Amino acid sequence: MLLAAWSPVHAGERCVEDDAGREVCLEAPAERIVALSPGATELLFAAGAGDHVVAAVSHADYPEAAEELPRVGTYDRLDMESILAKDPDLVVGWTSGNSSSQLERIEALGLPLYRSDPKVLDEIATSLERLGTLAGTEDEADAEAARFRDARDELEAEYADRDPVRVFYQIWPDPVMTVNDEQIISESIRICGGENVFGDLDSLTPRLDTESILAADPEAIVAGGMGEADDSWLEEWRRYDILEATAKDNLFFVEPSTIQRPTPRILEGTRVLCDKLQQARRNR
User: Which InterPro entries did the record assign (predicted)?
Assistant: First the structure.
């Protein structure tokens, strides 16, 4: 259960439950926050707490103000000395991306740690509310969460009755990797009327070989890239004209930061994805 309101035990104290199910309590609103993933940084800014963020990791590039933040390493190799030097009163980590041993060390050093890892779209809204509580920016965070839920519901209603499109979504080229139905991107695919052809695999981000993709024969292939305008991963699939996606020119690029980060911008990427799958329907 979300502990949304601050606790009355001590004046100013506030407690929430993080995405790992742990209670995080602060004696007062956080004023010096270190964010350990690009997604966590975006969430904090969206929750109205951008002015409270004192450091982030590499590739935390949205919004524009985040690019000016001091860096404390990369999401998978944190610089512990730099984190401590910032004297944070809250650290926002990424459970499935940061090193578990480094997150445990942060906790062992007595730093308040909120573990962020939204698995479904509604948890993005919940994260905004929780982070707003911890930062004392509840009004802005709650308003943004409400806008996000409304926009998600509108998009879902718009595509509710569309014919299904069988989709392979690529998140990495070597080895080729995709997502299963437990990963948040698959919810975007579902909202758009898509069916993830590898959704039933056990791993959250399965590794694939070319033969398995040829056998699945998706109607559409969607990929990110190494940059916001790099669609080079799709070139590999143009070689296989036996693929339905290739034969019908249903090879689509979506800017990765708009759909692969669990932040409010995921609805921008979902809208683009929906438009691409609608194009695939027209190509039938």
Answer: ABC_Transporter_SBP (IPR050902), ABC_transptr_periplasmic_BD (IPR002491), Vit_B12_bind_prot (IPR054828)
